Structure formats: structure tokens, C-alpha cells
Amino acid sequence: MPPSALENVLDILKTDQDGVLAGWIEVADEEGVKRSDLFSEREGREQAASLLKAFRNGISERTDKDDFDIQAEHWADLRGVLGEITHERVERGVQPSEMAGFVLALKGPLFSRLKERLAKKPEQLVEEILIASKAIDAFAIYTNEVFIAEREAVIERQREEMMELSTPVVELWSKVLTLPLIGTLDSLRAQEVMENLLQAIVHYQAEVVILDITGVQTVDTQVAQHLIRTAAAVRLMGAKCIISGISPKIAQTMVQLGVDVGEVRTRSTIRTALTDALLTVGYAITPIKNHQEGTLV
Amino acid sequence: MILDGAREVDRIELSGDRDVVRARRRIADRMDALGARALRKTRFVTAVSEVARNAVVHGGGGVMTVYAFKSARIGIECRDRGPGIASIEQALSDGFSTTGSMGHGLGGAKRLSDAFEIDSRPGGGTVVRMLGSL
Amino acid sequence: MSSAAAIYPVEGVLLVSIRDDITDTDIVDLQDALSERIADESANGVVLDISGLEIVDTFVGRVLAQLTSIARLLDAETFVVGMRPAVAMTLVELGMYLPENRTALSLTHALAKMRQMRDE
What we know:
By secondary structure, chain B is of the alpha+beta class. Chain B contains four helices and five strands, in the order E-H-H-E-E-H-H-E-E. Chain B starts with 6 loop residues before the first strand and ends with a strand.
């Protein structure tokens, strides 16, 4: 092993790992970051032990004497262990600050042991404490990054699920699709709506698309532009676009905003839009002769 | 500069219109290999096409350098040997209408890229840098 | 004209298939060749199949609009068919709605629409 600036830390971890582990868990308990309500003492001990082991292995593989970089190859194991523990704890509801507090609690027992060993070499003591402190801080920051990344992944997943829920393209009839828009239509969602719709046109070989905006809360200039652009893209694909559900209020807004609907066909209700759409593909809805109420044909 | 921290991964000489096709192809293939989404690839490659054509038609040819990032992005720098653009504002504003009137297409490239930078001095050529996401 | 575009007569209509590696020069040549063919063969329709195009930039978009105008002057209707979703979205973002062009999902759809137009 090459001489390392952390040689005493390494030695402590080799000869007195159990002592450090016990001290660490004790400090963590005192500082109230144990959360025995969320995971058992045994689990906490096992996780702390595997972290210490990865820390020890990382130091012994470490070749750079001065700077500490958690992204370095020899910290890969430690990153893995930290990531796993953070993932597990976050899933159970541990707060990121508690997780960081838990990691930082390692400093106490480790530094007190260093102090005993290097009582007569203050320069080396300071140096090792500095580097070890930097390392442990980096571990704590890393757990925070993992935490944020996990949260973001969860948010992204939920957003995608919501998006799918809120933009169902429905095949009403052969070659006729409808997309009932509900709620608000921001730019991001508008883009996804458009993408889903255009892909559905290819998939169903649809010739007519009804964009029903009955459920859209407000139509401002931006929403109106999105609608016009969606209709334009549908036309470029070779299908016809009908916008239905234009209420008197929305019609007034659109005129006041000076939105040019151009060649886009608009209908006040989905009922008239459907009649139109079916006509385009060669069908008509007609009443059944001699039909009696309540009779199932 | 928007390409800070990026790594050069490809270099495409632009002298004729066949090179514009080559630039499109090479960048599309790279984005495919990086797992880019169809829409993002189409948008960025369209922007690349505009910039490459501009260098060939108005810039007397040039070089397009492709950059890779650690994050899910791709970047290009296009340096031409032309007379430079006197009014960048005008170059970016034209080429834009519902009927598609004449223009440099640079305004379109700006619209389709995630980030866009242009440096030009009369007599000193034009440099365009763009970022796209995967 | 290079092999980047090919013109085939189908049911009195000229089908133009454009490949992704078409250059600006090729597409200008195509414009010449197609104008000649429309006149020579008295074609009453043109179908531009762009399903092979991964991108349509402002130049190609402009040429598509010009081809349509030229064909119209020569008494032929033009349909653009097979545009990919990502291409349609990009064109809309560029503000190129191609209002002059008629569009259809595929060659079959375009031929059906042309028959319908003739019957009316």
C-alpha cells in the first residue's frame, strides 16, 4: 500500500472498526437521527458497518495523496453502498437532512480516536482530520444528491402517468379519433398532447381527429395558439382536425385575442363534430324505423 | 460559452450541399446511438441542416464540430469562411413566415435548438453554436 | 437528376418519392424534371411522398410549396403524403404550415381524395 495521508484513519478502521461503529451509532442516536420508528437497530447497524467497510476499502485503494474526489474509481463501492442506504431510507420516509446527519455523525468517534493516536503529531492530526472531514462531508452531500435524483425520478414518473391519464386518444369509429382535453394546457403538456395525437393518427390511420376542449378551463392566447398549432400539425400529417366544445365565452375570448383560426374547423359540441367526422369517412347516423323506446335491437 | 465543458467528438468539412446531407446524417446517427427521442432528434437535425446550409450557401463553406456532454445533450459549432453577417438581428428574424419566404433559416435554427449563440464580424466569418437535448 | 428522388406514373398521377439523402441541388433538379413531366404527360395530379424524409427544413419546405404552386399552374393538384409526426411538429414550430399544400396520410389516401375531387 502506498503511504497515504489517511494512514491513521485506515489503521483505526482496520483495528477498531467495531469501536468506531458503536461510537458512530451512539452519536447518531444522541443527535436524534436514528429513526428507530422507520428502520430497526439491526438494520441501522448493518448499514453503518457496510459503509465503514466501503470507506476502508476506498482509502486503501486510494492513490492520490491530496485531493478528495468522490467520483473517483476507488469510491465506486462506497457510492453504491451510500446510494443503496439512501434509497432504502428515503423509501421509508427518512428526511434527507436526517440521512446527512447520520453520515456526519461518523466524524465524532473517528476524530476522537485520531486525536488519541496523534496527540504528539499535531500537524499530521490536523491534516488527517481535514481530509477525513472533507471525505465525510462529501459522503453526506452525495446522499443528498441521491435523494434529490430519486425524488426527481418519482416526480417524472408521476408526471408521465398523469400525462397519459389526461390525454387519452380514443378511436371513436374506424378512422375517427377523439382527444378530450381536460384541465389546463401548458406548453409542455401541449407538446405531449400533440405528439400522442400524431402518433395515434399513424397508428390508427385516422382521417379525422376531434379535439374536444369542453373540459379545458380557460383559453388564453397561449392555449389558443397551441390548439391552432396542433390542428396545423394534424393537417400536415394528412388528417382533418375538428375542434369541438367551443363555448360562447371561449369564442368571445378567441375573437378578442385576435386568434386566427384559419382553416381549422370548429364546432360548438362534440355531437355536431362527430356527425361531421362520420360524414367525412362516409357514414351517417340515422334513426331506426319503427323504433320503440326501451327496445334493444 | 454554451459549449463549455463539452468534448469534441466529430468534425465535418462543409464545402458543398452534399456535405449538408452528410452533417445531418452524422448527427442524426450520433443522436440515435445516444438514444435521443425522435422529436428531439428531428428538431436538432433540422436546426443543424439550416446552419450547415447557411455556411455553404452564404459563408463560402466551413467546418462543423460536434460536441458531446456528460449530460443528455449534444452541441455543435459551425465556423464559416464567409464575409460575416452585418446585421445578426435581421439574419435571425427573416426566413420566418407561414408560407416560408426566403431567408437564412438561422432564425429557425435558433427556435429549434435549446441554446443558440452567434458571433459574426464583417470580414471575419460567422460562428454559430447550438445545443440540443436528447 | 440523381437517384435521391424518383418519379413514377400511377393512375394518371405522378408519384414522387423523395429520399432522405436528397441535396438542395437534387431538389431543384427535381423541380425542373417534375414540371416537364407534368406538362409532357398531362398529369392531373402529383403525389409527393416524403415518408422517407427524417427532416424537412425551411429550404425543403419552401420547395414543397413551390412545387405545389408550379403544378397548380400546370393544372395538376399536389398532395404531400407520409409526413412523420416529428417532422409535422417541427414544421409547425418553424411556423411553416404549408397552407398551399394538400395533404394525405398515404399514396392510397391521396389517390382516393383525388378521385373524389374529380367526381365532385
